Amino acid sequence: MLKKLRHFPKVSTKSHRDEFYHYPGTVPGTIIIDADAPPPTILLIDYNQTDFIRRQVATPEECIPYLDQESVSWVDVQGLGNQDILERMGRVFELSPLVLEDVVNVSERPKVEDYEDRLLFIARMVVPKERTYGFYSEQVSLILGKQYLLTVQEEPEHDCFEGVRLRIEKGKGIIRRQGTDYLAYAVLDAIIDGFFPVLERYGEQLEDLEEEVIAKPTRKTLQKIYQLRRELLQLRRAIWPQRDAINALIRDRSELISEDVQIYLRDCYDHAVQVMDMVETYRELASGLMDVYLSAVGNKMNEVMKLLTVVSSIFIPLTFIAGIYGMNFNTEKSPYNMPELNWYWGYPLCLAVMGFIGLGLLFLFWRRGWLENSTAIKRD
Amino acid sequence: MLKKLRHFPKVSTKSHRDEFYHYPGTVPGTIIIDADAPPPTILLIDYNQTDFIRRQVATPEECIPYLDQESVSWVDVQGLGNQDILERMGRVFELSPLVLEDVVNVSERPKVEDYEDRLLFIARMVVPKERTYGFYSEQVSLILGKQYLLTVQEEPEHDCFEGVRLRIEKGKGIIRRQGTDYLAYAVLDAIIDGFFPVLERYGEQLEDLEEEVIAKPTRKTLQKIYQLRRELLQLRRAIWPQRDAINALIRDRSELISEDVQIYLRDCYDHAVQVMDMVETYRELASGLMDVYLSAVGNKMNEVMKLLTVVSSIFIPLTFIAGIYGMNFNTEKSPYNMPELNWYWGYPLCLAVMGFIGLGLLFLFWRRGWLENSTAIKRD
Amino acid sequence: MLKKLRHFPKVSTKSHRDEFYHYPGTVPGTIIIDADAPPPTILLIDYNQTDFIRRQVATPEECIPYLDQESVSWVDVQGLGNQDILERMGRVFELSPLVLEDVVNVSERPKVEDYEDRLLFIARMVVPKERTYGFYSEQVSLILGKQYLLTVQEEPEHDCFEGVRLRIEKGKGIIRRQGTDYLAYAVLDAIIDGFFPVLERYGEQLEDLEEEVIAKPTRKTLQKIYQLRRELLQLRRAIWPQRDAINALIRDRSELISEDVQIYLRDCYDHAVQVMDMVETYRELASGLMDVYLSAVGNKMNEVMKLLTVVSSIFIPLTFIAGIYGMNFNTEKSPYNMPELNWYWGYPLCLAVMGFIGLGLLFLFWRRGWLENSTAIKRD
Amino acid sequence: MLKKLRHFPKVSTKSHRDEFYHYPGTVPGTIIIDADAPPPTILLIDYNQTDFIRRQVATPEECIPYLDQESVSWVDVQGLGNQDILERMGRVFELSPLVLEDVVNVSERPKVEDYEDRLLFIARMVVPKERTYGFYSEQVSLILGKQYLLTVQEEPEHDCFEGVRLRIEKGKGIIRRQGTDYLAYAVLDAIIDGFFPVLERYGEQLEDLEEEVIAKPTRKTLQKIYQLRRELLQLRRAIWPQRDAINALIRDRSELISEDVQIYLRDCYDHAVQVMDMVETYRELASGLMDVYLSAVGNKMNEVMKLLTVVSSIFIPLTFIAGIYGMNFNTEKSPYNMPELNWYWGYPLCLAVMGFIGLGLLFLFWRRGWLENSTAIKRD
Amino acid sequence: MLKKLRHFPKVSTKSHRDEFYHYPGTVPGTIIIDADAPPPTILLIDYNQTDFIRRQVATPEECIPYLDQESVSWVDVQGLGNQDILERMGRVFELSPLVLEDVVNVSERPKVEDYEDRLLFIARMVVPKERTYGFYSEQVSLILGKQYLLTVQEEPEHDCFEGVRLRIEKGKGIIRRQGTDYLAYAVLDAIIDGFFPVLERYGEQLEDLEEEVIAKPTRKTLQKIYQLRRELLQLRRAIWPQRDAINALIRDRSELISEDVQIYLRDCYDHAVQVMDMVETYRELASGLMDVYLSAVGNKMNEVMKLLTVVSSIFIPLTFIAGIYGMNFNTEKSPYNMPELNWYWGYPLCLAVMGFIGLGLLFLFWRRGWLENSTAIKRD
User: Fold this and answer.
1) Does domain E305-367 have CATH number 1.20.58.340?
2) E94 at interface of D, judged by CB pairs closer than 8 A
3) For the structural domain made of C1-173, what CATH number should be given?
4) Nearest to A347 among B211, B337, B367 (CB)
5) Among A86, B69, B237, C121, fewest CB within 10 Å belongs to which?
6) Phi, psi angle pair for C173, to nearest 5°
């Protein structure tokens, strides 16, 4: 009672718990900095078809010279632990207080907002854990302007943008020939595609659980199934609004996004739908697994009961017979008092009857198939 | 039978039970005053960019001089226990009987109604209980006019508007520079944001219940899960129509609400959607928890049955053997009658056989893993 | 087998069973009179702002002089047991065969139909039973003309229109100053509001069942829960189409209904939505209760099993020991044959060992908490 | 293993199994004749306001003279077992191969198709079985032309058109004064109304099952519930698309259907909606019944367990006491060795203690209410 | 532990596991070749009303001369295991990188995309396994141009196009007189119709499982039901988007598809809806079967418990009586010490009492119907 034990391995990082809510009645646009949040690091990537710069900058103001150039500037802020820097960044990128609040509040629902000269896209990125099931989840805000893309990540570890950065650096594909809209698509696509490896792990876990549930259901299996359902629910909450937001992006045709990139976005939308499909399928399978678990527990109890019943049904009658001949009726007082005790073949006959009854019952149980099943338990 | 016991701690305050319904056939617009309702207190806040007045007024008529001024007037009525005052207030604010009925009937469904020169918004406010799980819930009616905002609360205790009042008093944010529409938004936003702390508590309770259900499921756990589901259902009934009403407010663009405040309302709408999302997620988790509970109960029965079966299966055959040698067949009448009784090593041999059988069965059960699990019970 | 017992108290009156269906292939517009239907009584209420007449009339034709006057005429037919009267009424009010069929067929789905010069509204009215849970349900057809309102009830007992009649008689509210459309609204509103007292009873029953299900679940509880679910399903089938019909009435703006009454109808629609909300909430609670019941039954079995296991696990080993010393090995043939029997402290030692084992097992069970729970059973 | 037993009474006739699918890759419009299909019989009914002809014709070509007349011709083909006749009929009525395929393929989904000069309506007709629960189901195709109605039934037995035929023959209602569109409505209406008697039977079966499930749940009850759910699912699959098709008919206003008949079709649509409502309600009840069954099985096991526990808990301790005094400790070796055996009142005291313990336990069980319930079992 | 056993027979071929996802951050349009994928074989069919050519070609370039002719060319690529050939094919048919990626990525969601001069249709084809339940599933991409149809299958084994190829070769139906659009329809129709034989097997399996679940539910039955549900879920994921895609094809009226073929496509759409209907019905049945299974397991445990209870309840009291008369109270010390032992009829009376009690209990159990049921077990 003193020490509260945590049986559940905690998967969720802080951002899962939705605990940084607006305290009722606070001024809208208030920035709340979580004490545990890591300090922000700023990575600037600036490129056009010929040039490429990638450097870590210390202050948001250092980005200013790059923003007005013709080249594409990608400012990637990682970590939300410094109010001063966040506010200066707000001034550099001319973000309204409401936008800044959305960016900093790490439990926003994915959404898109069109402010004519810029687009705000709140996304949720998932990264699979290395050695175990589960995933890290963090919020990524994309602010797309004419000449720049600002992305704000919740924390510096775990992102899935390295592939995009490499494509820019190496000039793979058409990314160096395209504008900020294509860059925003590439980042968004990396976020959506980041769901697949997470889902694949759950697919594997589901298969493992299937076997476990039928062969050897224990209390731990139950924990795992529930845990799995909870995490799939989190994935679902992350992907649904994301899909809606991408759809809104395609439908509302912002001027910031060219026709060509629209086609790529449709591809990205298809992938989001596919993620959703898989999440829903896995959820149905996990919920079916719970039914199977319940049945398997019932089955197991059946086997236990059968063993008890077989043992009891065979030995209880036999013990009764032994009990009869353990009675002390006085054989001398009357020829009818337990004459068997004095028979010449009394004891062997008694044993024979017991053996006959015991084997007979065993035979009956065997014919009903009860013995087979109780052997089946042994195999597990 | 004489004394009806209440095992369930009652969470719901009166307004939850929807018990003040229109008695079929009564005149529409009838005001029914609940005998237990607290008497109304009226708080007047009047402010513009430079001035600020906050005072308790005794009669609705005292508000009249403030209503026509250029300044923003917020009349906050708390408590519905006095028909006379309510009717006079209806006259002061020129409320139609149907509106007044909606305001006084404390089990209305959240909704918005546009009467051109004023807006009626029926909302439901939740405030978390201090020491325990659960929440107080009360109806708040907002009547938004050109120069005033009238809010009517069900009872004076528990509201979540203090933050708004302080922002006005201290002049924090832009509230003092804005009109009644912004004030109405601020109040509405405080109501929606008031759901988050309540939900956070349920999130914690869910985690506690998860552990409890797997480690030590008792009848009390069952009660708590059901209770949780019931309260989440209440939250759901409160937030769904609220979201629809805010959506209608945004979509129908009343003239009383400026463009700027529309943007803030969209933010408020996002939060309402987020609340809904969380409620639905928690409901799914709670319903999954019930499945887990059922399985855990089955599991526990399995453990109990296993213990019984192990004990019975080992001792029943042994007792049978003891029974055999407790029989009284006359060894003198025949050499075949229980000759074992007269063997030199008879008793030790018999004990040895018993020990062998007992240990053999124990070994079999150990190999099937039955002994492990029954130890697992001890750990709980 | 001879006498078929009805364990279920029948709630449903005949109209619930939907048993008067159109026999396939009959002429549309055929009137089928149920042999058990009560004979119709006709109540005429005629009023304007100054005058009021209320009288029982014997034949439909007696209403004719009232129908053409400027005053509002409300003809209320109660009971469907006389084909002749119903057909004459059809002629008096110029009802087409299809309309008359809808009116007489008491298992129609609530709906509204607009025939330009008149409106047909099929509604379902529920009235709570006096002493027990459950409700009477009957169909009410409203035919709204320019100068009259014809209502046809399935049977004369149980209606919820008395409040409306009194309001007309006493001149309460604005009803005497309004036309037939307002009267139709008042009747419809009384029908919708009639669901609230029925629902309140179910709310109470749900709370009672919650306690019963956790504290002392019996087979009767199961019956009650199923019964409750069935009746809520009936309520749901009654209120859903009714809400749709009122919505259609508001949306399609018949010329027979004035702008003012439209506003009142919206209020009535809000109440219908509230009823629906409550029905759905209660249905979810009742269905959750079934889960709780299943778990509670499992819990109870657990307690029973625990008691059995405790008793068996303690006494079976002890009985085995007693069995050993009940064996008849000949102590004279060998010093190894049950020497304990001849020890000086043999018997007390044996009892001491038994006591030690028994108390030890008891202690183990106590530490696992098994004894507590079995005491908990006693408390019920 | 040799003889495969069918425990389930098969309700479904062949057409239920959807087994005549298009083999992948076959030419569209291919007619597949089932070897078991009954040979077609053709019934011609030709009528106008004054004349009426009803005769069995041998070949489709015999219908030709009637088709061009002003009178209404109803050609009713029953049975699909002759490819030649079906193809000749296709030529007589100028049916395209795709239409003919739809007509002959007896597992089509109900639908409507408008070919300007004719309408194709694929419907599913159900006819209740005579002595048992369940129904026959067959496909009926209606082809509505200007001067004729062609109906093609899957088999000659069981239809629900006799009422329509009699109405034409006797001139009941307005059918003789109307065109082919009204005839098509009358046939469609008979098909929809044919669902009511089937549903009524299921309503009765549900009530019977309710009693059975609570009073005496056996394995057969389980079978029946599952069977019921399966058949309701079939009904649902039949009525949903039928409702959609009627709705499409009303919405798309074919030129072949007059304004007047549109009104009748709306009535028919209302009935289809009512059938759907009932099917859904029954499905919910049946699914609730399964929950009740599961709980009832648990309840019953509880009763069994209670009896076992009562018997064991009372007799196992008593047997232990008897065991103690059956031990053979040598009373002569020590005064502490079972001195009770030599007491004067030893045996009566021992019996008294046993009786006291036994009655005491019985009293405890009685107070817990365990004895009542086990008596309740007896009543079943 | 060392050897991980797979209890589940794996149905899914690789493409089911969705394991070839876009690695987050890769260039869109990247072609990933699975190492296990079979090398492509290319089958060219070229025909018009008079001529027909069918030949295996080695390189994509060999098709070029056929593509520009007036005749219809069907290039059918089977297998995706050679990147070079796929890329050359992309050049021959002028496929954009995004299209080629969709074609090669074998876990795309079925969809249709209209690129004005060509149509891309991603479909999923299922082929039933020969000897067992289950199906092979592979992706088929259709690219429809003016003069050619390119189909790309995942692997060369198992397709359902042989019927179409034969129809072309033999000139059956109208296929030789039609263009590429009709050919595309024929292929699509073969794919959709390919679901029916798969579903029919599941229909049969469902019936078998129904019997098994009620008569003899074992752990294997549970496996089979879960397996069935999982596979139906896969079918569902395959058919839903396929139906949507066909619908989009009909609705968006590409210029590549003539009016005539539109009508055929509607027929194809009807079949897709029918497949969906069946899948949903089977899923509901399978999920109902799980409930039945759980109940059946409970039922079986009931039977086992009954047997145990009958045996225990009869023999435990009898053994107790035998125990009493096995006690060693000294009959010589007191006339009250077990005088029965010395009675003349003592033993026979004792046996008689035992027999009476035993038969009496048996009679009670028989009257409660417990004996019948336990015989029922024997029958299984």
Assistant:
1) yes
2) no
3) 3.30.460.20
4) B337
5) B69
6) 65, -155
